[in-house]
Protein: DUF305 domain-containing protein
Organism: Lysinibacillus pakistanensis
Amino acid sequence: MAKSIELSNVTKAYLEEYQRILDKMIQGMTYVTITCSISENFIKQIIPHQVAAIKMSENVLRYTTNIAVQNLALEIIKTSTETLECLEAIQNRCCIVQNSEYELYEYMCAYKEITQAMFQAMCAPPVSNNININYLREMIVHHQGGVRLAQNVLRFCICQELIPILRCMIDTMCQQICDMEKLLDALQDCENC
């Protein structure tokens, strides 16, 4: 059984803000008015996910002095902002592409399964006073969920303008996951020295 650690006031402040960001993301991704367009549904569902990546990165930037974590957080803010802008630009056009009830059912079943797993993992209590480690653990799970959500939507007949954005999202998040996992390993090794 893991021993509970006493969290510093700085860690508590970071975690309180993280919890607010997470609660808002979960609410935004859960309470979406579903239409017959998978493309439209996905855009409305993924926007809170992208906003959360920006807010989580802004949160860690208030506290971290680690240059590698700062650079990563700034990169995530940049790429997530670009993705948001692309999604918002096509949102009104993508709702024209409609799907069958069966496709919609299949999409939503997978969507619920992916989001529940992501929400559960992101709600798991952090165990470190090291804010950098907490941020990387949280963001890895966030990005893994994002990749699965984008892969899910690509299985269906969707708006053609959405496809390159999804492919770019997947590539970017996979690369960032790889970078974060390497950085997390290095930080954990340092903690164990």
